[in-house]
Write a structure and sequence with these properties.
The chain has about 500 residues and is of the alpha/beta class. The chain folds into 2 domains: about 200 residues, FAD/NAD(P)-binding domain, CATH 3.50.50.60; about 270 residues, Polyamine Oxidase, Chain A, domain 2. Strand 1, helix 1 and strand 2 form a beta-alpha-beta unit. The longest helix is centred in the first third of the chain and has 21 residues. The chain is globular, with a radius of gyration of 22 Å. Bound molecules: flavin-adenine dinucleotide. The site of flavin-adenine dinucleotide has 36 residues, from helix 1, strand 14 and helix 15.
């Protein structure tokens, strides 16, 4: 039986490992941290259970498809609930100087969503219907076909049907233009543009193909696995173990041994050696290339990496509050400052933002198991440029800024009720995940960094080595990372039959 080592236990690593074990490979995952899940780890403190990374469960079909590969259903592992409202967006109300009480709640039901659009901009319900029907087509083709391609070269996209689709998919116009052609109200525009922030680029720089994210958001819905997002990690690890995968934590790979154009083994920082017939690296691509491989075995040089546009990093807080906070929903987007100015501070002229937008999640609104009785579990996130200098003083300044806006919006004293607080930013992303420039979610999905223009899954130099995860195809996010693992497993299987 062929031995495969997988570096990293994030979604892409777990997905690769489970799929390969199902095909009869002998698979071991080596994870540097003491707990599994990578950017989606979870921790407990003072009776609160905090998901450390992803909090939005979108594209439920991708998860169902994954578990179906093993004859299972999502419901065999966790209880998924649909959120209603899906989320609320807090805008600045120009009629209330300094006030931020203009709130839009996004209902789960399509008829109610259309009514909401119509009430904000007459005539927009019909436009939304048209917009979402195009977005559905993009979702079906994009998620059904494109993301499952290894994108080794442009020829994979050369068939006529796909070329025609590329135009229908609006690869060559920006999401921003596409949205602004149909809608005029700035709030509706922001609601429709916000999902691409997950892809780590501005709506101006993201192909209109990504309105497929609006279909995911508004038509397929926002879901939540009771117990937290880590339930997905636990379920995938269970599936992997059921298929025979061994998961070893506290095993940091320090070096990849090679001979005659092939990987032969990996060694860990504590000196353990794991021989391998094939290797999959699901840790950050840049880390693997620059720290684990010798220069002649790398796909790219540092100049290449210096030119990549990274998705933003994040300044995060995990906060336990000893009272409930009325007015908060499960997902709250604070768009009460100018997104254009914040985006400049992320992409054009990277610096700590003067007036950032932020996101607050309160999973305890839905799930009593993540906070002690009568308490609120808060996850706060400010998207910021990667590679910034991250100091305790900077973190403290933004904590105050975010808390002040939260208190103003809810009308509640929150700061004096905080019983637990931990922050997480660039330095932690580097320390915990070896993240290139402290990135949170990989490479931005700009047109020039899409599909075959992304860092390649296959090593050019080592015949039995592949990369997977959010820095390669198809891109950042939980569903793409799961798919990335499936694609690599299929490629490795093909190779083993040659
Ligand atoms: C704050 C935040 C919020 C997010 N929100 C969402 C969301 O709401 N919805 C969504 O869909 N996506 C979201 N994402 C994105 C999503 O979480 C990621 O795209 C996905 O988890 C990446 O999975 P991965 O397997 O590619 O990488 P990772 O999860 O980073 O896994 C890589 C693993 O490799 C390990 N590793 C690194 N170096 C070594 C080494 N030398 N030896 C052994 N192991 C090593 C790391 O410890 C890690 O466990 C968010 C991400 C962040 C950070």
């Amino acid at each position: 039986m062929k031995k495969v080592i997988v570096i990293g236990s994030g979604f892409s690593g777990l997905s690769t490992a489970a799929c390969l074990a199902r095909e009869g490979f002998h698979v071991t995952i080596l994870e540097k941290n003491e707990t599994i899940g990578g950017r989606a780890r979870q921790f407990e403190a003072e009776g609160f259970v905090f998901d450390m990374g992803p909090s939005w469960y979108w594209m439920p079909d991708v998860f169902e498809q994954f578990f179906a590969l093993f004859g299972k259903k999502v419901s065999d592992y966790y209880n998924l609930v649909r959120l209603d409202p899906s989320y609320q967006v807090i805008f600045k109300n120009p009629d209330q100087p300094g006030g931020i009480k203009d709130v839009v709640e996004l209902p789960a039901k399509m008829s109610e969503l259309e009514q909401l659009f119509e009430s904000i901009e007459p005539g927009s319900a019909a436009k939304l219907r048209k917009f979402l029907s195009e977005a559905e087509y993009k979702y079906r083709v994009g998620m059904g076909e494109f993301v499952h391609k290894p994108s080794n070269n442009i020829m994979e996209f050369a068939d006529l049907r796909i070329l025609i689709s590329l135009f229908r998919l609006q690869m060559f116009t920006s999401l921003s233009k596409h949205v602004r052609k149909l809608f005029k109200d700035e709030r509706l525009i922001q609601i429709l543009e916000f999902p691409v922030l997950f892809l780590g680029a501005t709506p101006q720089n993201t192909p209109a193909l990504s309105s497929l994210m609006n279909y995911a958001d508004m038509s397929l819905g926002t879901w939540y696995p009771m117990g937290g997002m880590h339930k997905i990690v636990e379920a995938m690890a269970d599936v992997a173990r059921e298929q025979g995968v061994t998961i070893k934590t506290g095993q940091e790979v320090a070096h990849i041994e090679t001979s005659n154009g092939k990987v032969t083994a990996v060694t860990t920082t504590d000196g353990a050696r794991y021989p391998a017939d094939a290797l999959v690296g699901s840790a950050d691509y840049h880390h693997i290339e620059t720290r684990l491989l010798s220069p002649e075995n790398r796909n790219y040089d540092q100049k290449y990496w210096d030119k990549r546009v990274m998705a933003p990093s994040s300044l995060l807080w995990y906060v336990g509050v000893n009272k409930r906070i009325p007015g908060l929903k499960h997902h709250n987007l604070f768009f009460d400052e100018d997104f254009g100015v914040h985006a400049e501070d992320i992409y054009t002229n990277p610096k700590w933002p003067a007036k950032p937008l932020f996101y607050a999640s309160a999973p305890s609104v839905t799930d009593s198991s993540v906070a002690p009785e009568g308490c609120e579990n808060l996850f706060l996130l400010i998207p910021v440029a990667p590679g910034l200098e991250d100091t305790p003083e900077v973190r403290a300044k933004y904590y105050d800024m975010v808390m002040e806006r939260l208190e103003r919006f809810t009308g509640e004293d929150i700061r004096s009720h905080v019983v637990y607080e931990r922050s997480f930013a660039h330095a932690d992303f580097v320390k915990d995940y070896h993240a290139f420039r402290g990135n949170a979610y990989g490479l931005a999905n700009t047109l020039l960094q899409t599909a075959f223009l992304k860092p390649k899954m296959k090593s050019n130099k080592l015949s039995n080595f592949w990369y997977t995860g959010q820095l390669t195809v198809p891109g950042p996010g939980v569903p793409p990372s799961i798919i990335s693992g499936q694609v690599v497993a299929a490629e490795l299987k093909k190779w083993s039959k040659q």
